[in-house]
Write a structure and sequence with these properties.
With 343 residues, the protein is of the alpha/beta class. The protein is built from twelve helices and twelve strands. The strands form three sheets. A six-stranded parallel β-sheet has the order 2-1-3-4-5-11, with helices on both faces. Strands 7-6-8-9 form a four-stranded parallel β-sheet, sandwiched between helices.
Length: 343
């Protein structure tokens, strides 16, 4: 009897040890969990390894079409995309309205576009919706104007601070030791090129302490507004030697205001953009309205070239591409006009 009891006890102990071992194994296995992918992980995978498709839908969100330079950007995007029949580009014009541009991008997201190209009206207000598109797995190419942070696939644009600095150095040189009074007709407040072109210019004129900026107002990149701005500046200032426009329409607007006041021969006018078109900045230099301008490429073709790399080739593109500039004066304007395809 005792022997039987010992056998039973031994068997019970073995069963308990076995159950304990199984339970321990289950606990260990269940504790090993795989972390869920984050939104950023999803976006990165979607942008880096796109699914191969027979056609792609690209949304182009433009800050405005009031500037000829932006019309040229859209035209260059369309021309580059036309060489790739698998691409369809849909356009939206924000008309310098941040709220409309946010709604435009939201609409593109709802359309399930394959890639977003955006030239933001202003940096801060557009940052969140650009991030929303990027976090949704849509590759984003930011063109010309920047957003805050780095929630985008790539940025393409000119070096606005360098261009502003070159303009400042040019002004400091042509005014010479006597110096002179400078008027600055700026771009849109809150747009990154406006601040960078201003900062660069102020750095460029430092070499000549006799150069003074006597007035600085926003023309919002538009010729008509720049005419109005310059009219009030002319009334308040009897001596102006140079007008620095943040783009060619600003410089041309200032020229028109000065001409209407019969004062255009008193001063020189400098712009930025240098479009190779009959009404662009290069022709304005050739015809004597502007003394100088600086090439500011639209980046339209570059955006499509990189869209192809992202969508069709699955390439990891550079985070930032800086486009070159060129100083255009009376001496080289005709050659530059031909070089960039002017007709």
């Amino acid at each position: 009897m005792k022997k039987n009891n010992l056998i039973v006890s031994f068997l019970l102990v073995m069963v308990l040890i076995s159950l304990s071992a199984c339970g321990s194994g289950s606990t260990t296995t269940s504790s090993k969990t795989t972390p869920a992918p984050t939104t950023a992980d999803t976006a990165a995978k979607a942008s880096e390894v796109p699914k191969k498709k027979s056609s792609y839908l690209i949304g182009m969100s433009q800050a405005n079409l009031g500037e000829p330079w932006r019309v040229a950007m859209n035209d260059q995007i369309a021309a580059a995309a036309a060489k790739h029949p698998e691409l369809k580009v849909v356009y939206a014009d924000a008309a310098q309205d941040n709220s409309k541009q946010i709604a435009d991008v939201e609409n593109f997201i709802q359309q399930k576009i394959d890639l977003l190209i955006i030239s933001p009206n202003e940096a801060k207000p557009l940052t969140a919706v650009v991030k929303k598109a990027y976090d949704a797995g849509i590759p984003v190419i930011v063109l010309d104007r920047k957003v805050e942070g780095d929630a985008y696939t790539m940025y393409i644009g000119g070096n606005n601070k360098l261009i502003g600095k070159k303009a400042g150095e040019y002004v400091a040189k042509i005014l010479g030791d006597k110096g002179g009074n400078v008027v600055e007709v700026k771009g849109l407040e809150g747009a990154t090129p406006q601040q960078e072109r201003h900062d660069g210019f102020m750095e460029g004129i430092k070499s000549n302490p006799n150069v003074k900026v006597i007035a600085s107002q926003n023309g919002d990149w538009l010729k008509d507004k720049s005419i109005t701005v310059m009219e009030s500046i002319l009334q308040a200032n009897k001596k102006i030697d140079i007008v620095y426009g943040h783009n060619d329409p600003a410089a041309e607007g200032a020229f028109i205001a000065a001409k209407n006041a019969k004062r255009e021969t008193e001063m020189k006018f400098i712009g930025i953009d240098a479009l190779p078109t009959p009404d662009g900045g290069i022709k304005a230099v050739m015809e004597g309205r502007l003394t100088a301008t600086y090439v500011y490429p639209t980046g339209g073709k570059d955006a499509i070239d990189n869209a192809i790399k992202i969508l069709e080739n699955g390439e990891k593109v550079e985070k930032s591409i800086t486009l070159d500039t060129l100083e255009v004066t009376k001496e080289n304007a005709a050659d530059v006009y031909k070089q960039f395809g002017g007709k």
